Amino acid sequence: MQLLSLLADRFEEALRGWVEHPEEHARRVAVARDPRHGDYQANIAMPLAKPLGQPPRQIAEQIVQRLQVDDICMPPEIAGPGFINLKVRDAFLAESIQRMAQDDRLLVGNQTPRRYVIDYSAPNVAKPMHVGHIRSTVIGDSLCRVLRFLGHEVVSDNHLGDWGTQFGMIIYGYKHFVDPAAFEQNPVAELSRIYRMVQSIIAFQSAQKKLPAAERRLERAARAAQEAETAAQDDPQVRKASKQAAKELRAAREEVQALQDKVQAVLSDPELARLAEAHPDLEKRVQLETVKLHQGDEENLGLWRQFMPISIREIESVYRRLGVHFDHTLGESFYHPMLPQIVQKLVDSGIAVESDGAICVFLEGFDAPMIIRKRDGAFLYATTDLATVEYRMQHFHPDAILYVVDHRQSEHFQKLFAAVRKMGYADVELQHVAFGTVLGPDGRPFKTRSGSVVGLEYLLDEAVERAYQVVCDAERLERAGLELSESQRREIAEVVGIGAIKYADLSHNRTSDYEFNIDQMVQLEGNTSTYIQYMYARTCSILRKSGETIDADWIAQTTVVLPTEVERTMALQLLQLEDALLQTAQDYMPSVLASYLYALAKQYAVFFDQCPVLTAEDAELRASRLLLCHVVGRVLRQGLDLLGINVVERM
Ligand code: ARG
What we know:
It contains 27 helices and 13 strands. By secondary structure, it is of the alpha/beta class. It is globular and about 85 Å long. About 40% of the residues are buried. Bound molecules: arginine (ARG). Arginine (ARG) binds near residues 388 and 405. Arginine binds near residues 122 and 403.
């Protein structure tokens, strides 16, 4: 049930033929922030005061006269300068909850179907997978679920980074640094070790080159800061300059420190230092291996074919654990054969031009062009993405393509989208569903302990372990009167632990950074999935204890009554499920759904506290309250499922 748009439609009717663009004004109805103002509040009259040349209160009165909401609301009230407050009728709420209980889809309608391609997860194979990839995976998976539930068609596609420089790194590393016995024993760990080794040496060599200049910058900054310090500090202009100088000094110091760390990381390990010496200019050497791979060199292709399944198996075990599936996994390598054609096509159509030996697409509003073929003939990430769009348009015919990718790639996507428009794809919606960084306790980007795929699984294990400690604590279970076998406890811990990781990602507004804190995310109190899962389990437990079988007949015979404000509020919240889902889909923000579920779970806790169910005064009230518990349980379970989170019936 779309209560909000139902009301907006009524306002639109009331305004039609009287003001211009009634639909735009009608949108200014929203859930009331303060329950004293009713359930919904329309701020329509004030903005109309000017165009209509009347005092807003007078306009509000006229709107109310024209407005027909009798079947849904009590007579509207006008407040303050001209707000229109609406209170939904109890009878409407009760009757709707009844229908909701009888409906498989919880009164969520099917939208006019659109076809979406969702590009998410997309880790770089053979490179340690990081928390950012969980974030993309979890957000993307939830968007797939929500859009499908709303009746859309979704093609999920994992655009694996299986063709990039990281292969040059491990191919070079494998040829020169591999420990065959270790590779035999545990290929994933050995490849990961090799990767990190090559990475550190490259970082070391580049830091060594940059250090002298950085140190000179630091000296200059120190001098400038000193001078600013001694200048007359009572002049605000000078104070400002001195602050700026201090800031620059800090930045210069940090830069030198970071470079020194990279140098030290290698120098402190004699073996690594020896290798760094023996393999000068490693970055170039690695690049040559990548080029050879891309040109079809047999040896390198052979190694690529050998490494791919090893890494993919590892990534898939993470997906299995998270319960995530893709319709397609068309990685970068899949598009490799199409790259010369796409470049040719863009050149032929005049969209791309040669510049300094490279092939570029110049785009309005961007200083630097999008390079699609380098001077040395190599193709780029952007080239692959162009070929990918072309392929998707031809094979999937989408109405929208969503890219769930780190916000740091936003410029890449802006350029990509601009280029796609130039190619003549005018109608497809293109969205970079960007997300912020996952931070560690130090406020810096979170790093897994070993920085490897294994590290990611280790994180999941850790969350499950903490979940076990929190929810399967012996004393707690005893207090709750729950007798559970060890395997049941393990199962609960798995559901709670994995749910916690996902919910932490999903409940934060995706565009902001958030701190990854396992201890906090598994807690039973606060905005956590554990809390919502627990409230779901409570609904199950009370229904179990009631001894009733809540089936279609039982529901049909039950009359919903809402004698208390607590029940009334909860009923209204239940009916707002569809609005929450539509908002989630419109903004591509699973956090909207998460907030909705958390608010409902909290309201259920209040209800549980204040409204006796099994011991209600009479049979009618008891049945009505049981039915509410039943619907709350269903909404929580369904909602969590749309976030990709499971539930257990006892915890
Ligand atoms: N592999 C990339 C990374 O890890 C993300 C790819 C996103 N998808 C795309 N079509 N570019 O940064």
